[in-house]
Amino acid sequence: MPMLQVSQFSRFANQGEINSEKGIIVGVSVISIGEAKGHGMEVDKVTLEQVCPVAKSHKDGIKTKFGLDHEAGIESVNGVLKNFRIDGDKVRADLHLLKSDANREKVLELATVAPNTFGLSASFSGNHITEGLVKKVRCSEIYSVDFVSDPAANKSLFSTNHNNMKDIALALGLPETATEAEIIAAGKVAFEYKAKMDAEAKKKLE
Fold first, then answer.
1. What is residue 41's DSSP assignment?
2. What are the two backbone dihedrals, phi and then psi, of residue 180, each rounded to the nearest 5 degrees?
3. Which residues face 41 on adjacent strands?
4. Against a cut of 0.70, is the pTM above it?
5. Residue 12: which of 174, 197, 201 has the closest Cα?
């Protein structure tokens, strides 16, 4: 069965979806209905219904890593995806970043301030089918889900209802007319403030 690389991820996170202390990003989009660009194929509802149980069958989760090198060793693994579920037109999961990963803080910060600049690419195999003139993606096994800088099909990091920069600006308390640079700067400040508050709360518990 041919292995397919479906480049997808999602969009801006709601407040509370990123736990920087624990290194958990809740509700990331693993794959969604639409074109699998570069393959001449489409992801449909059946694809999601196959991906979800296959992913759940991996009791320790599906590993995530940087890049698309399928021969890369354990040193490239930076986390695992768990709690897979179908949410409308996509499969979501929760990303648990490894404490030992050198890029942990970078991923958390990017997810906060620039989620549209990177995405995930799922590597899986299956007997893909043709319906009329359209080839449909099918999944029988998943190997990994990889971080990439140019997601081809799923837009970017979270795929919530925040579908444009205007929504992101409003979520950060900025006016709708805020520039991209202002939005990124505000997101970075919010991330740093949250990290500070988390650290202070942890000290109080010690």
1. E
2. -60, -40
3. 36, 135
4. no
5. 174
Tokens standing for 178? 């805020």
Question: Do 65 and 146 contact (CB within 8 A), yes or no?
Answer: yes
DSSP code for 135: E
Amino acid making up residue 58: H
Rounded Cα distance, 180 and 184, in Å: 6
Least-confidence region, from 14-18, 26-30, 83-87, 142-146? 14-18
Bigger pLDDT: 200 vs 161: 200
Quote the CA–CA distance of 49 and 27 in Å, as a whole number. 17
Residue type, 12: F
Task: Map residue 50 onto helix, strand or coil.
Answer: helix
Contact 176, 170 (CB under 8 A): yes
State the Cα–Cα distance between residues 203 and 187, nearest whole angstrom.
Answer: 24
